[in-house]
Amino acid sequence: MKKPVPLDIDAILDDKGTRIIVCCGSGGVGKTTTAAALGLRAAERGRCAVVLTVDPARRLAQSMGLTELDNTPRLVSSPEGGGQLYAMMLDMKRTFDEIIEAHADPERARQILSNPFYQSLSSSFAGTQEYMAMEKLGQLRRSDEWDLIIVDTPPSRSALDFLDAPERLGRFLDGRFIRLLTAPAKAGGRSAFRLLNAGFGLMAGAMTKLLGAQVIKDLQTFVSALDAVFGGFRQRAEMTYKLLQAPGTAFLVVAAPERDAMREASYFVERLAEERMPLAGLVVNRVHMSPGSALSAARSAAAAEDLESRGEHELTAAVLRLHTGRMQLATRESREQEHFVSAHPTVPVAQVRAMSGDVHDLAGLRQIGNLLASA
Amino acid sequence: MDSPDTDWDDVRLHVVTGKGGTGKTTVAAALALALAAGGRKVLLVEVEGRQGIAQIFDLPPLPYEERKIAVAPSGGDVYALAIDPEEAMLEYMEMFYGMRRAGRALTKMGIVDFATTVAPGFRDVLVTGKTTEAVRRRGKNGRRVYDAVVLDAPPTGRITRFLNVTQEVAGLAKVGPIKNHSDLVNGVVKSRETMVHFVTLLEEMPVQETLDGVGELRSAGLPPGCVFINMVRESLLPQAALDMAVKGRFDVGELALGLKAAGLADTSDAAAMAEALAEEVVEHARRTELEHAERESLAGAGLPRVELPLLADGVDLAGLYELADILRTHRGAA
Predict the structure, then answer these.
(1) Torsion of CA B93, B95, B101, B102, to 10 degrees
(2) Which of A357, B104, B122, B252 has the highest CB neighbour count under 10 A?
(3) A207 to chain B: which residues are within 8 Å by CB?
(4) What is the arrangement of strands in the sheet containing B77-82, beginning at the earlier edge strand?
């Protein structure tokens, strides 16, 4: 196999210049576990680290002692050597509410918080998560209370939604749509639609027909109330985006050695380069390695067949079958990784071997950290 | 397989969800083939813009239109549709309000962008709307166009919210077309014509998510279907040997003898090779034990379970038909 450049995790963690590590990758590849393991290792090497996780599996959260959804970083561990590990789960509604409360006057804040559109947008619609994860990341960074922030990205339909979020928001806010919506409310109600030109009139009619008059009114109130708040919102989103491009940030793409996940990893690597985001390397989780790799799949299978046909050593034959499968799996996995390495030969790679069970405690996270660093 | 309560005959919409990495799209595709077998017509719908269906069936990216992509065993057609929310919105406006031109204007103003991305809840409304429209659609003869629709849905963590999204939006719009639309969607999703299937692996996290997902679905009054346990590896070793291995008492000496008998090692290196292989056996035994525990947990969900094997060569077309065959037996047995 073409050898990739090894990824030196400890060098990244020990570099005081590293302030943010972003773990991204498709769903189900162990992003959150990787983030938590990196956080613990960083703390044990003297950093003051906070892990911001968006949607952790319950048991993983428990392994760090987090039992509830809570928007404040909690101390998980203070190992010897002065380092500390904090962790928090993102509460997106709470984060959104806090922005509104901080940036609107009390009367306007009240209007927004009680608006039905706001309530839906802030608590239940997918997509809000990405904005709020970015927002929280920016907040944590600006607070400067931690010298390393490790964040895992939300499990969105398109895993890079968090990168697109600020731009999308900007496009929306600059769009004529928002001007249309804010204008009538400022002019005192629906009648203002009539003042607009024919194109707008057609569209306003369409919207009223589609959504119903009450909805339009709620939406107008909502958007105009948010208008003032949104300006700052967008500015901060852009700042966070720039923060991600800065040298203090390290992106780790996380994958499993399977076709879909590796394909997605390639896509990530390319997208990050396009966005000029600093990529530190690729972490391949759950790699199957065999302690008996000296015995090839072919020889193992032939020997098993031989024993079976002679009717001898049944157990040995079964063990050889097991080994054959294991070696085939390892071959397939290294082929998937080879594809990646040939396409991206300069990207450093760390492999973490598959473990028989899930992580339940700090000891498990520590073990993963060791594997990551020794890759 | 475990319960007689798995009658799929009346089910028109099969929603397939699962944690990322469990093979949700593969199972959805195999299910579509299985349901189409024997001369039926099935639509396979994809909603996340990943072009997963095209990849599995080895086709160029699918456009936003229903097109035939595969022939099922013993005749039967599988059609596929990759829903593009923006196109769906324009189509809707034309279909229900005759407003194609207004739709184009909306696109220019960024409202389509708003509806499909900034407020992604609307995107889910469009996707569920389009899917249920395909379920309800009837031909000139008054019969349903599709015998079944299989939806490759968002992951388990999002599924209840996804299926309930029209209700959410209906909360905003108490009357009017959105409300009507929402009622139409709910009329399908909450009926006996719909089943939500969960794809899982025999691993802790996917099993936990499945159990949580089933719970959420039930509280929301949505109908759970089956649990598909994917990528199941058969155990090659007798239970007694596995038990010994877990206890750390696997007979390495006997294994070394076997290796020598097979001509794989001579006396000097047989022991070392046996030690290495025994290590694999112990890992295998531990995993088998864990898988057993996960099976028990899944039984607690009270849903029928169907096991699908790990395909030795990865998922290719042949493998897909193999899975479809297993699912078809299940359909027949139901």
Answers:
(1) -20
(2) B122
(3) 106, 111
(4) B67-71, B77-82, B41-46, B148-152, B13-18, B194-200, B224-232, B305-309
Query: Which amino acid does the sequence have at B289?
Result: E
Instruction: Using alpha carbons, list the distances in angstroms from residue B308 to B99, B284, B327.
Output: 47, 19, 8
CB burial of residue A215 (10 Å; 0-12, 13-18, 19+): buried
Closest chain A residue to B269, measured at CA: A294
- Sequence-separated (6 or more) residues with CB below 8 Å from residue B94: B100, B103
Question: Measured between alpha carbons, how far is A212 from B97 in angstroms, rounded to an integer?
Answer: 13
ipTM: 0.78
CB pair distance less than 8 Å for A59 and B204: yes
CA terminus-to-terminus distance, chain A:
16
B189 CB-side CA count, 13 A = 32
Structure tokens at A341: 């390495």
Report the amino acid identity of residue B318. Answer: A
Q: How far apart are CA A207 and CA A219, in angstroms?
A: 11
| Sheet (strand A48-53) strand order | A74-77, A84-89, A48-53, A148-152, A20-24, A249-255, A279-287, A349-353
Please state which of the ranges A227-241, A290-304, B65-79, B151-165 shows the lowest mean pLDDT: A227-241
Phi, psi of B76, rounded to the nearest 5 degrees: 125, 145
- Strand-pairing partners, residue B70, are B78
Q: What are phi and psi of A311, to 5 degrees?
A: 70, 30
Decide if A293 contacts A334 (C-beta within 8 A).
Answer: no
Rounded to two decimals, what is the model's pTM?
A: 0.81
- pLDDT tens for A106-120 read 888 888 888 777 776
DSSP H or E stretch at residue A118: helix A116-123
pLDDT band at A193 (very low <50, low <70, confident <90, very high): very low
Q: What is the mean pLDDT of residues B105-134?
A: 71
The pLDDT score that the predictor gives to residue A83 is: 94
Give residue-wise pLDDT tens across range B253-269: 999 999 999 999 877 78
Quick one: pLDDT band at residue B21, thresholds 50, 70, 90?
confident
Q: In which element (H, E) is residue A285 found?
A: strand A279-287
Supply the pLDDT for residue A157: 47
Residue with tokens 């569920």: B128
- The kind and range of the H/E element at A22 are strand A20-24
Q: Is B158 an interface residue toward A (CB < 8 Å)?
A: yes
Interface contacts (A, B; CB < 8 Å):
226
Q: Is B223 on the interface with A (CB under 8 A)?
A: no
Nearest to A72 by CA among A53, A88, A50: A88
